[in-house]
Please model this.
Amino acid sequence: MPFMRAEDAISGKMGKAFATINGEVHEMMYLKNIEATAEKNKVEVPVLGRTGNQHKAGGWNGTGSATVYYVTSKFRELMLQYIKTGRDFYLDILIENNDPTSSAGTQTTILKGVNFDSIVMAKLDIESETLDEDLSFTYNDVDMPNKFRPIG
Model:
């Protein structure tokens, strides 16, 4: 019977992320963590002769969150642009999981049309060794050009 080997577990530290903003690619070396979720929107379907409702998918929503070290002004610049002009900003984020120890290989996910919900414009914290900020976002599309190989 096949089983998973410990070395095939993907290290959360082994990977890269890149943001494409206005056609420019920026490596997100300041990223501490990121997680994106695709959630189905389900509608209730009442069915004659049944006491309970059934459910059917009727679309989806992409949401996510990230924590970054407070070392880049790029997101604040984009938010300032929105505040001053009303021109919103959308970006793509490419996330690559690549643990060389794992036989699973590389997975690449591209979140498209990422739009942040809020941006920290200024921050000080005398009790923190390093400053970071939490970002929540939505996204409009997703691709996965590289997938993990089956293990075991």
Q: What stands out?
A: Residues 74-85 form the longest helix (12 residues).
